[in-house]
């Protein structure tokens, strides 16, 4: 038999090679009617890591999976709030190599917690989410006139309670402050 005969097809090896790429979540290999059928499920790209003129998509585990399409770039520039994915602005350029870890899964969990609870608990609209770099343990939520710093090492709910206290009790101080730093357990810094 020739080496390319269907008896020598190693579908497990093909699947393993395809899944070694960070682009796919699943691969199905079938040989039917003399044809090789490969069905791939693309890894979902849920987070756009944005830095000045360069952007990259990461999945929910923080792994870089692909570059955005032209349509996605236009959407981010024109109407970022309506994008069907999360957008995190990086102060420093995020990792750009497909398959590398851009954010820790712990960071993503905390980020999603901030994102899900912030607007509901504060009645403030978010303009942007920022982090300095891929290994940061803090993030910035930008709202009109303010930058609010959150620690990713502390409970988000405790930081939001402090923020709501400042909004309710120190309205004038809140209005005058450009930076509200909630990263410290024993104090809040207003600048």
Describe what this molecule looks like in 3D.
The protein is 30% helix and 30% strand. It has 191 residues and is an alpha/beta fold. Strand 6 (86-90), helix 3 (105-122) and strand 7 form a beta-alpha-beta unit. The radius of gyration is 22 Å and the shape is elongated. It starts with 10 loop residues before the first helix and ends with a strand. The mean pLDDT is 84.
What's the rounded overall pLDDT mean?
A: 84
> Strand portion, in percent?
25-35%
Low-confidence regions? none
Number of H- or I-type helical stretches? 5
The general outline is: elongated
Number of distinct beta strands? 11
Could you describe the largest sheet, including whether it forms a barrel?
Answer: 9 strands, mixed
Order of helices and strands: HEEEEEHEHEEEHHEE
* Helix/strand structural class: alpha/beta
Instruction: Please give the radius of gyration in angstroms.
Output: 22 Å
Spatial order of the strands forming the largest sheet: 5-4-3-6-7-8-9-10-11
User: Helix coverage percent of residues?
Assistant: 25-40%
């Amino acid at each position: 038999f020739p080496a390319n005969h269907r008896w020598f097809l190693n579908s497990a090896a093909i699947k393993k090679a395809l899944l070694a790429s960070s682009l796919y979540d699943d691969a199905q290999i079938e040989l039917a009617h003399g044809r090789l059928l490969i069905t791939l499920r693309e890894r979902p790209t849920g987070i756009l890591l944005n830095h000045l003129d360069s952007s990259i998509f990461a999945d929910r585990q923080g792994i870089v999976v692909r570059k955005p399409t032209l349509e996605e770039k236009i959407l981010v520039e024109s109407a970022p709030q309506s994008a069907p994915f999360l957008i995190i602005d990086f102060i420093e350029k995020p990792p750009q190599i497909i398959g590398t870890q851009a954010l820790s899964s712990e960071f993503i969990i905390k980020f999603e917690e901030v994102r899900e609870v912030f607007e509901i608990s504060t009645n403030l609209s978010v303009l942007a989410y920022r982090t300095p770099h891929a290994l940061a343990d803090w993030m910035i939520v930008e709202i009109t006139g303010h930058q609010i710093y959150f620690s990713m090492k502390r409970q988000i709910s405790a930081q939001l309670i402090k923020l709501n206290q400042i909004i309710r009790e120190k309205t004038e101080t809140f209005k005058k402050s450009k930076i509200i730093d909630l990263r410290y357990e024993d104090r809040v810094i207003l600048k």
